[in-house]
Design goal:
By secondary structure, this protein is of the alpha/beta class. It has twelve helices and 17 strands. Helix 4 runs parallel beside helix 5 and helix 9 crosses helix 12. The mean pLDDT is about 95. Bound molecules: nicotinamide-adenine-dinucleotide (NAD). The site of nicotinamide-adenine-dinucleotide has 24 residues, from loops.
């Protein structure tokens, strides 16, 4: 079986999970973490020591110098577009972090570039890989809910995310782009790829603005889909530092024959200590363990979606076609989620209902 030679572009807060995933796939002979690129030289030096890859400040140089089969793009949202297009032109397969792009035209350009160059374009919508969501989808597909009529979802971060993690680019993002995009896509996934047709959103800029980070605190959006269902998406990133987890999230859907609810954060594991207080842990997302050789291993849907990409690339390297891969979050899914997110932001800015 082929072992994809992979490079990671952007190795910050989330990029480290891509490095972890490909390093451990290397242990198992499934992929090779060859190189990584980041404009932050200090970080590059630190991570290359830890993960043993060829470091590049300029991703274009990495694409030119290394014989890569694939790259993953984990730069801030506005910088996915150019990098994905450059990677496609270099003939390498691409996994792009969500959102694919912050404009619908950008998504289409990325899809076209990948199609023209015959490379795989996958989007890291990892909520599709959460076993609880997969079980929900199986029940929905089996008809347990009948015709879905409405739903509700929430995704909220502790305030440390926009305030401390990346205040520099949080001002160019929002809870809709950073968090909502996951649930816009999850709703599509659960509802047989239904597409958004209309949206109305409201939002508040107050708390973060008072801290010097001028972006939306919260955005509440109601989206109508082409299957006739309406789903509410409440997103925010101002939960107090003392909240029990970094993320709070969940979804419920109601149909003619039944309903389904999923607490996508609290999986029933809690801890309490003097420093952190009571904490709940989403063990489905990321679990750390040590293997028999004493190596650090990460498991959970946060790894599965990235590993799925490497395995899809291996299938292609072994002579398979894009059609042979079967279901995966592709460029079209990225575009449809961005269409909803862009509509949410147009509506929250204008106060008007937006047709998608
Ligand atoms: N799937 C998820 O649940 C999840 C979670 C967090 C973030 N993300 C996504 O991952 C992406 C990165 O987010 P983050 O939190 O890691 O941000 P971050 O700011 O911590 O890291 C981004 C990194 O990209 C680097 N970078 C910027 N421009 C670059 C360029 N042109 N070439 C190479 N490197 C460049 C920066 O130096 C930084 O190290 C975003 O699109 C975000 O939405 C996804």
């Amino acid at each position: 079986m082929a072992q994809a030679r992979i490079g990671v572009i952007g190795i910050g807060t989330f990029g480290i999970n891509h490095l972890r995933c490909f390093r451990q796939m290397g242990y198992w002979g499934e992929a090779e973490l060859v190189a990584a690129a980041d404009i932050n030289e200090e970080l590059l030096e630190e991570r290359s020591q830890e993960f043993d890859f060829e470091p590049y400040v300029d991703y274009k140089e990495m694409l030119a110098n290394e014989r890569l089969d694939a790259v993953t793009v984990v730069t801030p949202d506005p910088y996915h577009r150019e990098i994905v297009i450059d990677a496609a032109k270099a003939g390498v397969h691409v996994l792009c972090e969500k959102p694919l792009d912050v404009t619908v035209e950008g998504c289409q350009e990325m899809i076209d570039a990948c199609e023209d160059n015959g490379v795989l374009l996958q989007v890291d919508f990892h909520k599709r890989y959460d076993e609880y969501h997969i079980a929900m989808k199986q029940k929905i597909d089996a008809g347990d809910l009948g015709e879905i009529e409405y739903g509700y979802s929430h995704m909220e971060d502790r305030i440390e995310v926009p305030r401390d993690w990346f205040p520099g680019w949080a001002v160019n993002s929002s809870p809709g782009w950073f968090l909502g995009i996951h649930f816009y896509d999850l709703a599509r996934f659960l509802m047989n790829d239904a597409n958004g047709v209309r949206v109305w959103a409201t939002g508040v800029r107050r708390k973060l603005r008072s801290l010097g980070v001028d972006t939306w605190d919260s955005i509440s959006a109601k989206v109508e889909f082409d299957n006739g269902a309406s789903v509410m998406f409440d997103t925010s990133w101002i939960l107090p530092d003392t909240f029990e987890a970094i993320v709070n999230q969940g979804i419920r859907l109601v149909g003619t024959e039944g309903m389904l609810e999923c607490d996508s954060q609290d999986r029933g594991t809690i801890t309490c200590n003097y420093e952190d207080g009571m904490q709940t842990h989403n063990m489905s997302f990321l679990r750390e363990r040590t293997d028999k050789q004493g190596r650090e291993i990460f498991e959970g849907y946060g790894m599965d979606s990235i590993a799925d990409f490497a395995r899809n690339v291996n299938l292609l390297l072994d002579g398979g076609s894009l059609e042979d891969i079967g279901a995966y979050p592709d460029g079209h899914d990225g575009l449809e989620a961005t269409k909803i997110a862009a509509g949410v932001h147009e509506s929250v800015e204008s106060g008007q209902i937006v047709e998608l």
